[in-house]
Amino acid sequence: MATTDKASPRDRLLDAAAELFYRDGASIGVEALCRSAGVSKRSMYQLFDSKDEVLAASLERRRPWYEAQLRSPDAEAATPRERIRYVFRRVEENAAEPGYRGCPYLAVLVELKDSEHPASVVARAAKELLRGYFEEQAGQGGAADPALLARQLVLVFDGAGARAGAHIERLDDGLVTATVTTLLDAAGMK
Predict the structure, then answer these.
(1) Which of 66, 56, 64 is nearest to 109 (CA)?
(2) How far apart are alpha carbons 41 and 114 in whole angstroms?
(3) What is d(CA 158, CA 102) in angstroms, rounded to the nearest whole number?
(4) 52 burial class (0-12, 13-18, 19+ CB within 10 angstroms)?
(5) On the CB side of 72, how many CA atoms lie within 13 Å of its CA?
(6) How far is Cα 57 from Cα 119, in angstroms, rounded to an integer?
(7) How many whole angstroms separate alpha carbon 177 and alpha carbon 99?
(8) At what angle do helices 9-24 and 104-112 cross, to 10 degrees?
(9) How far is the C-alpha of 169 from the C-alpha of 161, rounded, in Å?
(10) What percent of the chain has pLDDT over 70?
(11) Are 80 and 188 spatial neighbours (Cβ–Cβ below 8 Å)?
(12) 181 alpha carbon, distance to own chain's centre
């Protein structure tokens, strides 16, 4: 898909990277990336030192979208329990979208396996943000062990997204929210 709009070469590269890396994985070549972005390799290397940096920058650029997925539209009125459940309802909704491949940050961590890779650093920070959000909500909601509940919720989040992204599991039957409700109940969440 060649990008033909008036976006800057940097923006076109980041847009193409987000789409290609999410759809096809981090092994996409520089040629395919530049062709999709409508940018020469020379231009890419003037903007970024490497394809790895393009991937990291595209993931960092996506963070506001990712964080928005965590926030209930009525966050002020919602209870911590409702805020957590909202995240999982969004997972269920997103999984029903064509082209859904699961969490882009988890995908990068699994594919790259190199904890020092620039994209892995960005992806780990995003996953830590999610765990921290769950722990904060669990603490506010009176969970007996907020840190443990947060870890459990991340496992459900990542597992559900990965299975749905691999087209092994459908999430339209409420299993994810039912599982999360059971964890919240067991943890004593209000």
Answers:
(1) 56
(2) 25
(3) 8
(4) middle
(5) 18
(6) 8
(7) 22
(8) 70
(9) 9
(10) 97
(11) no
(12) 22
Q: What does residue 72 show for φ and ψ, rounded to 5 degrees? A: -65, 140
DSSP states of 93-159 as a string?
HHHTSTT--S-HHHHHHHHH--TTSHHHHHHHHHHHHHHHHHHHHHHHTT-SSHHHHHHHHHHHHHH
**pLDDT reported for residue 124:** 96
Q: How many helices (H) and strands (E) does the chain have?
A: 9, 0
- DSSP 3-state of 26: coil
Cα 4 to chain centroid distance, Å, stands at 27
Q: What is the per-residue DSSP string for 154-180?
A: HHHHHHHHHHHHTTS---TTSHHHHHH
- DSSP 8-state class, residue 74: T
Show Cβ contacts of residue 65 under 8 Å, excluding neighbours closer than 6 positions: none
Q: Which residue has the tokens 């443990």?
A: 148
139-178 pLDDT, tens digit each: 999 999 999 999 999 999 999 999 999 999 999 999 999 9
- Amino acid sitting at position 160: A
How many Cα atoms occupy the beta-carbon half-sphere of 168 within 13 Å? 7
Neighbouring CB atoms inside 10 A of 112's CB total 19
* C-alpha–C-alpha distance, residues 186 and 124, integer Å: 28
